[in-house]
Amino acid sequence: MAALAVPPPPGTATTLVTLQTLVAYFNWGLFGVLSAQVYLFHDASQGHPWDSRKMAVYTIYTLQIAQTALITFAGFKYLVEGGLGNVQPGNDPKLGYIAVPIISGIDCPRSELRSGC
Known about the structure:
The chain crosses the membrane at residues 25-44, 56-76. Helix content is 69%, strand content 0%. The protein has 117 residues and is mainly alpha-helical.
């Protein structure tokens, strides 16, 4: 008789690795959508002079590139260097504290102010 496979309890290494992977995939998916939008904006605004709107779009895109790079770095460190049961490298903050709170704190208010609300 085969042994029954019991899922690991919440909070174990497998759950943490799965969440980190989902965060990286979700971030890359949204970055792809943003890249397509920036490309369409660039294509539509060719020949127009530089103004504050163009500067805001390219600044936000540059911040998103930095945030995606940091999240990818953290995910790689967590998944590849840590291995599937070792969560110790994921607990090392290194540059992770910059990725979400600081860059998002700069990016979100700027996006809301430029939307004209």
